[in-house]
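Explain my protein.
***
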Amino acid sequence: MAKQKVVVGMSGGVDSSVAAYLLKEAGYEVIGVTMQIWQDESEMVLEENGGCCGLSAVDDARRVAGILDIPYYVMNFKQEFKKSVMDYFTREYLCGRTPNPCIACNRYVKWEALLKRSLSIGADYIATGHYARIAQLANGRYAVKNSVTASKDQTYALYNLTQEQLSHTLMPVGDYTKEEIRAIAEEIQLPVAKKKDSQEICFVPDNDYAAFIQRETGITAPKGNFVNTKGKIIGQHEGITHYTVGQRRGLGLPMGHRVFVLEIRPETNEVVVGEEEEVFAHSLRANCVNYMAIPPLEIGDSISCIAKIRYGHKGAPCTIRRTGEDEITCTFEQAVRAVTPGQAVVFYKDDYVAGGGIIQNAIPD
């Protein structure tokens, strides 16, 4: 019987490197691939933290592939990344929302584009170094399950994967802690064993989103007014691309006490600020819904679950109700802080991702 073939997306980091090793040890025919997705070969990018898709990724991944004795290729996905991630990122910020580009990259580039190309060359699976696990449930559906280590769990950014994509995906790293992965890398003498994790968005390494959007689109977000909840002008903002809901730093308002961004109104170019207690909400509305562990709810039906409203959110008990053709409302038992349009709400049932959607707005109490 021929070995099953798996294409491992190798970022040059320790997690994907060990994923390739674990799969080879498990008996798969492993092919390493680095996705070239945004940088130009001539560009020199400072990568103190070793970005997941920067220039050093290719060198590190190629060295690891040589040590593991597996074939290695670089595939160009710049066009897909520009359209599905970078253009989406700039468009959302200019519309007053705060997107999560890693979620879009996972769905449309790392899975949709890479999986299609991998299947075309005869692969059975693709694999990544994400801290998550995949299982097929009793109801027949595939779902992403929490990793064994809560501190590195990456299931939130994977909620948008389809059933077809999940059925062709392996995630061996989800069964280990970060410390165990680094220990394996040291044991087999991989040069990336102590490489730092990337923290920033790969195509905005300096974290200056507003400057990136201006460079990328040629559009300078115009200055406008800070207003309070009653519409009173209390200052001038630098352009809506500089702000996100819940933000308190960098507002430059002489209020005498801390105030927070409550809402961004692109139609009037206003940024609404208020008191800390006003940042909290009990309910939100979301669309672009993807159901994973559970089949799609019928309109009017609801489930109790745990939901996260951002990557770093620990999750909170809530009720998800389907309220439209492509709409859910999420009502939390206790108010949550900074419900941010453009971010994802991801709901969990028994450690599995049940589904998720894109937050449209907080619903006033």
Summary: Residues 41-51 have pLDDT under 50 and may be disordered. Residues 156 and 311 are 6 Å apart (CA to CA). The radius of gyration is 22 Å. The helical segments are 14-25, 55-68, 78-94, 101-120, 163-167, 178-187, 209-217.
